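User: Fold this one for me? It's Phosphoribosylglycinamide formyltransferase.
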Amino acid sequence: MHAPCNVVVLISGSGSNLQALIDSLDEDNSPARIRAVVSNRAEAFGLQRAQAANIDTHVVQHKDFADREAFDAALMEIIDTYQPQLVVLAGFMRILTAGFVRHYQGRLLNIHPSLLPKYKGLDTHRRALDAGDREHGCSVHFVTEELDGGPVAIQACLKIEPNESIDKLTDRVHAAEHIIYPLAVHWFAEGRLRLATQGAMLDDMLLPATGHLLRI
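Assistant: Here's what I get for Phosphoribosylglycinamide formyltransferase.
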């Protein structure tokens, strides 16, 4: 059996996606192991989730650095001590520098709460409702220098219910995130998912622009 894929997770908040990853990898035969969790906020509840699972934790507070480059350099120094094959952004609320993204090219995943390329950026659930969309969801994508613009690996798509509240839609999308993010991490750890020049590949097949679609 291959050695498990080393994963480092970056968080800023409660870490619900981190918990979904921890739960999905809590097996002796898991293809990946989370070596460390790094947060830019000392009060992030996700750090407690990691500690409860005996995962190393680190805090790198962006306010302690003069600029983004210095912050990202400190972040990379910690991440690289764990020699990760994969770095996972799980609610990490910082825009990363081009140098950071290039350093981890092909091994940096993010989850975004919309059906990319729709609704890059913030407030995605309200924007989908305001637009009268019939469907909404979330996307796991490789990170590139374009914000929320890297090739998509997998999307979860759900129907928006008539007169659905933003709180209910938010909860449903969160639940979908907790399904597709562990799936994407497993695929990557098993060598099935990778980033190629032409886009995201699954089992050596080029995925469409919207990735592998899962209807929930």
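One thing worth pointing out: The chain has two domains: 1-104, 112-139+146-215.
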